[in-house]
Amino acid sequence: MAMIKAAVFASGTGSNFDAIVKASEAGGIPCDIQLLVCDRKDAVVITKAEQKNIDTFVFSPKEFDGKDAYERQILLECRERGIEWVFLAGYMRLIGPVLLEPFKNRIINIHPSLLPAFPGKDAIGQAFEKQVKVTGVTIHYIDDGMDTGPIIEQEAIRITAKDTKETLQQKIQAVEHSLYPKVIQSLLVEEEVH
Ligand code: GAR
Q1: 89 lines ligand 1 (CB under 6 A)
Q2: Lower CB count within 10 Å: N or C terminus of the chain?
Protein backbone atom coordinates (compact mmCIF):
# COMPACT_ATOMS: atom_id res chain seq x y z
CA MET A 1 0.00 0.00 0.00
CA ALA A 2 1.30 3.48 -0.91
CA MET A 3 2.51 5.62 2.00
CA ILE A 4 0.28 8.62 2.57
CA LYS A 5 1.90 11.86 3.68
CA ALA A 6 0.27 13.35 6.74
CA ALA A 7 0.61 16.20 9.21
CA VAL A 8 -0.38 16.30 12.86
CA PHE A 9 -1.60 19.58 14.39
CA ALA A 10 -1.23 19.79 18.18
CA SER A 11 -1.03 22.40 20.95
CA GLY A 12 -0.08 20.43 24.06
CA THR A 13 1.61 17.37 25.47
CA GLY A 14 1.45 15.30 22.32
CA SER A 15 0.56 11.87 23.69
CA ASN A 16 -1.72 11.32 20.69
CA PHE A 17 0.97 12.65 18.36
CA ASP A 18 3.26 10.00 19.87
CA ALA A 19 0.69 7.24 19.45
CA ILE A 20 0.18 8.12 15.77
CA VAL A 21 3.91 8.38 15.04
CA LYS A 22 4.61 5.06 16.81
CA ALA A 23 1.85 3.31 14.84
CA SER A 24 3.26 4.68 11.58
CA GLU A 25 6.82 3.64 12.50
CA ALA A 26 5.63 0.15 13.39
CA GLY A 27 3.83 -0.16 10.05
CA GLY A 28 0.45 -0.18 11.81
CA ILE A 29 -0.79 2.69 9.64
CA PRO A 30 0.25 3.31 6.04
CA CYS A 31 1.35 6.88 6.45
CA ASP A 32 4.41 8.99 7.00
CA ILE A 33 4.05 11.81 9.51
CA GLN A 34 6.02 14.53 7.76
CA LEU A 35 5.05 17.62 9.72
CA LEU A 36 3.95 18.81 13.15
CA VAL A 37 2.03 22.10 13.18
CA CYS A 38 1.92 23.71 16.62
CA ASP A 39 0.49 27.05 17.73
CA ARG A 40 2.34 27.23 21.07
CA LYS A 41 6.04 27.82 21.24
CA ASP A 42 6.33 26.16 24.66
CA ALA A 43 4.34 23.00 23.87
CA VAL A 44 5.89 19.68 24.95
CA VAL A 45 4.85 18.08 21.65
CA ILE A 46 7.54 20.09 19.82
CA THR A 47 10.34 18.21 21.63
CA LYS A 48 8.66 14.92 20.76
CA ALA A 49 8.67 15.81 17.04
CA GLU A 50 12.29 16.97 17.19
CA GLN A 51 13.34 13.68 18.81
CA LYS A 52 11.72 11.85 15.91
CA ASN A 53 13.28 14.17 13.31
CA ILE A 54 9.86 15.28 12.14
CA ASP A 55 9.68 18.79 10.66
CA THR A 56 7.86 21.33 12.78
CA PHE A 57 6.04 24.52 11.91
CA VAL A 58 5.63 26.35 15.21
CA PHE A 59 3.89 29.69 15.12
CA SER A 60 2.38 32.25 17.40
CA PRO A 61 -1.03 33.40 16.09
CA LYS A 62 -0.39 36.89 17.53
CA GLU A 63 2.48 37.34 15.09
CA PHE A 64 0.14 37.06 12.09
CA ASP A 65 -2.47 39.37 10.70
CA GLY A 66 -5.40 37.07 11.55
CA LYS A 67 -6.37 33.42 11.09
CA ASP A 68 -6.35 33.49 7.27
CA ALA A 69 -2.74 34.70 7.29
CA TYR A 70 -1.38 31.95 9.55
CA GLU A 71 -3.49 29.28 7.86
CA ARG A 72 -2.09 30.37 4.46
CA GLN A 73 1.38 29.78 5.89
CA ILE A 74 0.32 26.37 7.27
CA LEU A 75 -1.09 25.49 3.83
CA LEU A 76 2.20 26.42 2.23
CA GLU A 77 4.14 24.25 4.71
CA CYS A 78 1.77 21.35 3.95
CA ARG A 79 1.97 21.81 0.17
CA GLU A 80 5.78 21.93 0.21
CA ARG A 81 5.74 18.45 1.73
CA GLY A 82 2.84 17.03 -0.31
CA ILE A 83 0.65 16.54 2.77
CA GLU A 84 -2.57 14.68 1.94
CA TRP A 85 -4.19 14.17 5.35
CA VAL A 86 -4.26 16.20 8.58
CA PHE A 87 -4.79 14.64 12.01
CA LEU A 88 -5.72 17.07 14.79
CA ALA A 89 -4.43 15.85 18.14
CA GLY A 90 -5.22 18.38 20.84
CA TYR A 91 -4.99 21.36 18.45
CA MET A 92 -7.03 23.90 20.36
CA ARG A 93 -8.09 26.15 17.45
CA LEU A 94 -10.93 26.11 14.95
CA ILE A 95 -9.83 25.41 11.40
CA GLY A 96 -10.90 28.07 8.88
CA PRO A 97 -11.78 27.93 5.17
CA VAL A 98 -8.17 28.45 4.03
CA LEU A 99 -7.40 24.89 5.19
CA LEU A 100 -10.90 23.35 5.17
CA GLU A 101 -11.41 23.77 1.43
CA PRO A 102 -8.16 22.23 0.13
CA PHE A 103 -8.34 19.42 2.72
CA LYS A 104 -12.06 18.67 2.36
CA ASN A 105 -12.88 15.41 4.23
CA ARG A 106 -9.20 14.96 4.99
CA ILE A 107 -8.93 16.66 8.35
CA ILE A 108 -10.01 14.60 11.33
CA ASN A 109 -10.07 15.38 15.02
CA ILE A 110 -10.08 13.45 18.28
CA HIS A 111 -12.18 14.74 21.17
CA PRO A 112 -12.36 13.37 24.73
CA SER A 113 -16.15 12.99 25.05
CA LEU A 114 -19.06 11.34 23.30
CA LEU A 115 -19.97 14.24 21.02
CA PRO A 116 -22.31 16.07 20.75
CA ALA A 117 -21.96 16.01 24.56
CA PHE A 118 -19.29 18.24 26.09
CA PRO A 119 -17.74 20.03 23.08
CA GLY A 120 -14.98 22.62 23.51
CA LYS A 121 -12.38 22.90 26.20
CA ASP A 122 -11.93 20.58 29.20
CA ALA A 123 -14.42 17.97 28.00
CA ILE A 124 -13.16 15.53 30.65
CA GLY A 125 -13.74 18.06 33.45
CA GLN A 126 -17.17 18.92 32.04
CA ALA A 127 -18.23 15.24 32.06
CA PHE A 128 -16.81 14.71 35.54
CA GLU A 129 -18.60 17.74 36.97
CA LYS A 130 -21.95 16.73 35.43
CA GLN A 131 -21.53 13.31 37.10
CA VAL A 132 -22.47 11.43 33.94
CA LYS A 133 -21.95 7.66 34.18
CA VAL A 134 -20.65 7.22 30.66
CA THR A 135 -18.37 9.41 28.59
CA GLY A 136 -15.83 8.47 25.94
CA VAL A 137 -13.85 9.40 22.87
CA THR A 138 -15.01 10.65 19.48
CA ILE A 139 -13.15 10.85 16.19
CA HIS A 140 -14.82 13.06 13.61
CA TYR A 141 -14.33 15.00 10.39
CA ILE A 142 -13.81 18.71 10.86
CA ASP A 143 -16.23 21.37 9.72
CA ASP A 144 -16.35 25.07 10.58
CA GLY A 145 -17.98 24.52 13.99
CA MET A 146 -16.60 23.63 17.39
CA ASP A 147 -16.37 19.80 17.51
CA THR A 148 -19.40 19.50 15.21
CA GLY A 149 -18.30 17.62 12.06
CA PRO A 150 -19.60 14.18 11.00
CA ILE A 151 -18.73 11.44 13.49
CA ILE A 152 -16.51 8.60 12.26
CA GLU A 153 -16.06 6.51 15.42
CA GLN A 154 -16.81 6.59 19.15
CA GLU A 155 -15.85 4.50 22.14
CA ALA A 156 -17.65 4.69 25.47
CA ILE A 157 -15.95 4.74 28.88
CA ARG A 158 -17.76 4.19 32.17
CA ILE A 159 -17.15 6.63 35.03
CA THR A 160 -17.15 4.78 38.33
CA ALA A 161 -17.64 6.09 41.88
CA LYS A 162 -13.91 5.63 42.45
CA ASP A 163 -12.85 7.78 39.52
CA THR A 164 -11.23 11.15 39.99
CA LYS A 165 -10.77 13.58 37.14
CA GLU A 166 -7.18 12.29 36.89
CA THR A 167 -8.10 8.59 36.65
CA LEU A 168 -10.80 9.43 34.12
CA GLN A 169 -8.26 11.32 32.06
CA GLN A 170 -5.93 8.29 32.13
CA LYS A 171 -8.73 5.99 30.98
CA ILE A 172 -9.70 8.37 28.19
CA GLN A 173 -6.13 8.81 27.00
CA ALA A 174 -5.53 5.04 26.94
CA VAL A 175 -8.57 4.66 24.68
CA GLU A 176 -7.48 7.60 22.51
CA HIS A 177 -4.03 6.13 21.91
CA SER A 178 -5.38 2.89 20.54
CA LEU A 179 -8.52 4.24 18.81
CA TYR A 180 -6.88 7.07 16.81
CA PRO A 181 -4.37 4.85 14.94
CA LYS A 182 -7.11 2.24 14.29
CA VAL A 183 -9.44 4.83 12.76
CA ILE A 184 -6.64 6.34 10.67
CA GLN A 185 -5.76 2.87 9.42
CA SER A 186 -9.32 2.11 8.34
CA LEU A 187 -9.83 5.50 6.64
CA LEU A 188 -6.61 5.19 4.65
CA VAL A 189 -7.32 1.59 3.62
CA GLU A 190 -10.86 2.58 2.59
CA GLU A 191 -9.46 5.43 0.51
CA GLU A 192 -7.03 3.07 -1.25
CA VAL A 193 -9.84 0.64 -2.11
CA HIS A 194 -12.09 3.33 -3.67
C1 GAR B 1 -6.63 14.84 23.98
O2 GAR B 1 -7.30 14.26 25.07
C3 GAR B 1 -7.61 15.26 22.90
O4 GAR B 1 -8.72 14.42 22.81
C5 GAR B 1 -7.99 16.64 23.38
O6 GAR B 1 -6.79 17.20 23.82
C7 GAR B 1 -5.98 16.17 24.39
C8 GAR B 1 -4.58 16.30 23.86
O9 GAR B 1 -3.70 15.45 24.54
N10 GAR B 1 -8.60 17.40 22.33
C11 GAR B 1 -9.58 18.28 22.51
O12 GAR B 1 -10.05 18.55 23.59
C13 GAR B 1 -10.08 18.92 21.22
N14 GAR B 1 -11.29 19.66 21.44
P15 GAR B 1 -2.27 15.11 23.96
O16 GAR B 1 -1.59 16.46 23.69
O17 GAR B 1 -1.58 14.36 25.06
O18 GAR B 1 -2.45 14.30 22.71
Answers
A1: yes
A2: C
Q: Compute the distance from residue 33 Cα to the ligand 1 centre, in Å.
A: 18
Residues 24-63 as b or e (16 or more Cβ within 10 Å = b)? beeeebbbbbbbbbbbbeebebbebbeeeebebbebeeee
Q: Read off the pLDDT of residues 168-193 as tens digits, 9 standing for 90 and up.
A: 999 999 999 999 999 999 999 888 77
Question: Which residue's CA is minimally distant from atom 2 of ligand 1?
Answer: 112
111 noted as active-site residue? yes
Cα–ligand 1 centroid distance for 90 (angstroms): 4
Domains of the chain: 4-193 (3.40.50.170)
pTM for the model:
0.97
Of all protein residues, the one whose alpha carbon is nearest to atom 12 of ligand 1 is 111
Cα–Cα distance for residue pair 29/49, rounded to 1 Å: 18
Residue 16 is which amino acid? Answer: N
